[in-house]
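Weekly modeling sync, notes
Attendees: S.R. (lead), two postdocs, one rotation student

Agenda item 3: backlog of single-chain predictions. S.R. asked that every request posted to the team notebook include the full sequence so nobody has to chase files. The rotation student volunteered to paste the first one in as an example of the format we agreed on. Action items at the bottom.

Example entry:
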Amino acid sequence: MEQYRRLNRELIARGAIIDYYQDTMQIPNGNRAKWDLIDHKGAAAVLAVREDGRILMVRQYRNALERETLEIPAGGLNGREEPTDAAARRELEEETGFVCGRMELLNSIYTTVAFCNEKIDIYLTTDLKPGKQHLDEDEYINVEAYSLEELKQMIYQCRIQDSKTICAIMTYAAKLSDEAAGIKV
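Predicted structure, as returned to the notebook:
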């Protein structure tokens, strides 16, 4: 396969969460193309399962969609070097008021590979203890809990459309199914 080569990267705009670049690329046929890149420092999320099996979810307003969404707790890294498990723990407590003990990596996703490098590490915890919610000044979050089956139905009905949340719920459902079938995961 012939090589793609970046000839130039120009910062178009710096934002609070992302930076927007325009790359000039030489593509394998020798032509040049302009490609957009959204640079993101990364994020972490957590699927938090209570002792009764219900999953903690957060309902919050999302400006990009101009409506509320139902999602798993998540947030951006404080810096590219911050460990994602530490960020997941922080976001869980900030958004839900729960702290967790043991966590395991459930999945790792890139949200929009065509133009964005945002990577989200998604963790699973079943070891929850009450803590204290610490919302940012501009955050208004309602914490809700649902069964896995309720959440899957919301996905099938297109009521949950957030990709990290869908990935987390469906990966967790598959993991439970595989474990029940005796498949080592």
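Discussion: group reviewed the output briefly. The chain has a mean pLDDT of 94.
Action items: rotation student to repeat for the remaining queue; S.R. to check formatting next week.
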